[in-house]
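To the wet lab folks,

You asked to see what we're planning to order before we commit. Fair enough. Below is the target structure as tokens, and below that is the sequence we designed to fit it. If anything looks off to you, flag it before the synthesis order goes out.
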């Protein structure tokens, strides 16, 4: 990940990341939009890294980078004044001025849409055209080549992808990546998972390495997960990689003990979920009971009875085969919530299978009081699900957190949610089969952590017009239909 917001620093790190050596480098002022764009296109045209002056990198550091590259020639973008202004930044290298004039009309028009005017924030974040070599006049480039060392047969990168969503200030870094031979893929909003075309492109390319340019891609782990999912071919039932935006309707199901054919029996749950989804307006989802609270400590002393995996697996597979999502409902005992993942991890490793937890039923012990968990305990569940998704190349995993009071997760607002996990806080009804009370909804829905969603429990008797009883603000991501 190259995520500096300073254009000169971003350009320097791109040069360091993509180039081992180069006899030529391109230099321009970080303060000049047109010079940056021209420099980026020039770098792509002559296979040279692009560096920027007048930014967050000193002339000494620029000269050091040119020395590392072994650059004997620096192409300075601009007029004689620009050439004189580079000062000590070129070090011992020979400076060659290059001022091709305006970029192509189409390119210039596209670039100008990214340059803000006044206080228009939308303009300031508008896309910038990719700084490809064809933005320069071929005659100008040929003239430049006659003045610089021959780079006609460079050793380019192989099977390296660069993910970009071009913004002002990123031109030089992108130009360097293109010059090095990296294959560019434009990812709107920095979300690989959000665009089917982007996913298909990455799946086809199967890159050996990926570099993201821009903070919008998140951490290297975040980008790595998205690329891993795209190349694995694993998707959610609807063919996507992300769960939201959207609305789901969950229907509870417990595999009967001793049943001979769990897969066939799960068909009942699929049918019920389909009906509930139609009535309540959302995609059907089945919550499968994976464990139950127990009044006895049991052999492992956790006060939880786990359902046999050989019963759960065929039922879960049948529900997934029907095109529906699955949530594994796990009961808390006296151990941390994440302990309940041990038994069901083989199922969580399947695309479209998530988890449902109940922090307010937590028994005292192992750092928690009865009826509540510290946010660190919930964070451990989130982090483990994210790790499963990353290691297995899975699409986003849903984590439903049932709450009748926000206080059942102490310091809930501090929860950090990575893109691999979609967390839904479901406001629970006061009793089985009853709709969530207004007070409970207001409490649970208030000040939820960033990047999380809300759920709401529906009554057993749903009116003809369910929207008459369902909350509308904030938006519902999940409706629990029993």
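Sequence we intend to order:
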């Amino acid at each position: 990940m190259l995520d500096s917001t300073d254009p000169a620093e971003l350009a320097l790190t791109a040069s360091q990341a993509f180039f081992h050596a180069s006899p030529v480098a391109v230099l321009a002022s970080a303060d000049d939009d047109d010079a940056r764009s021209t420099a980026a296109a020039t770098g792509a045209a002559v296979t040279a890294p692009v560096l920027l002056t007048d930014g967050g990198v000193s002339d000494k550091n620029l000269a050091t980078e040119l020395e590392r590259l072994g650059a004997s020639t620096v192409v300075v973008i601009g007029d004689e004044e620009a050439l004189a202004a580079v000062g000590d930044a070129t070090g011992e290298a020979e400076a060659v001025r290059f001022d091709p004039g305006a970029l192509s009309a189409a390119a210039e028009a596209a670039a100008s849409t990214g340059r803000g005017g006044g206080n228009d924030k939308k303009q300031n974040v508008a896309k910038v055209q990719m700084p490809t070599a064809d933005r320069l006049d071929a005659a100008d480039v040929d003239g430049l080549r006659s003045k610089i060392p021959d780079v006609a047969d460079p050793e380019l990168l192989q099977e390296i992808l660069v993910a970009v969503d071009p913004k002002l200030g990123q031109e030089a870094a992108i130009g360097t990546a293109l010059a090095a031979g990296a294959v560019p893929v434009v990812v709107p909003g920095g979300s690989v998972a959000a665009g089917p075309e982007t996913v298909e492109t990455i799946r086809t390319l199967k890159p050996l390495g990926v570099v993201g340019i821009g903070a919008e891609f998140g951490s290297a782990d975040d980008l790595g997960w998205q690329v891993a999912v795209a190349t694995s071919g694993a998707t959610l039932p609807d063919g996507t990689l992300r769960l939201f935006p959207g609305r789901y309707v969950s229907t509870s199901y417990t595999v009967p003990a001793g049943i001979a054919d769990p897969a066939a029996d799960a068909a009942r749950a699929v049918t019920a979920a389909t009906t509930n989804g139609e009535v309540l307006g959302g995609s059907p989802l089945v919550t499968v009971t994976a464990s139950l609270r127990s009044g006895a400590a049991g052999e492992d002393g956790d006060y939880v009875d786990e359902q046999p995996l050989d019963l759960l697996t065929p039922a879960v597979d049948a529900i997934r085969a029907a095109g529906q999502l699955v949530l594994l409902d796990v009961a808390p005992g006296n151990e941390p919530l994440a302990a309940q993942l041990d038994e069901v991890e083989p199922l969580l490793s399947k695309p479209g299978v998530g988890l449902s937890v109940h922090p307010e039923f937590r028994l005292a012990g192992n750092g928690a009081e009865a009826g509540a968990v510290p946010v660190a305990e919930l964070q451990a569940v989130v982090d483990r699900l994210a790790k499963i998704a990353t290691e297995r190349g899975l699409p986003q995993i849903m984590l439903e957190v049932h709450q009748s009071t926000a206080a059942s997760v102490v310091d809930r607002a501090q929860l950090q949610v990575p893109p691999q996990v979609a967390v839904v806080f479901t406001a629970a009804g006061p009793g089985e089969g009853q709709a969530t009370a207004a007070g409970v909804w207001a409490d649970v829905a208030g000040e939820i952590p960033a990047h999380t969603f809300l759920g709401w429990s529906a009554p057993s008797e749903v009116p003809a017009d369910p929207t008459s009883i369902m909350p509308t603000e904030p938006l519902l991501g999940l409706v629990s239909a029993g």
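Structural context that might help your review: Residues 40 and 175 are 4 Å apart (CA to CA). The two ends are 44 Å apart (CA to CA).

Thanks,
Computational group
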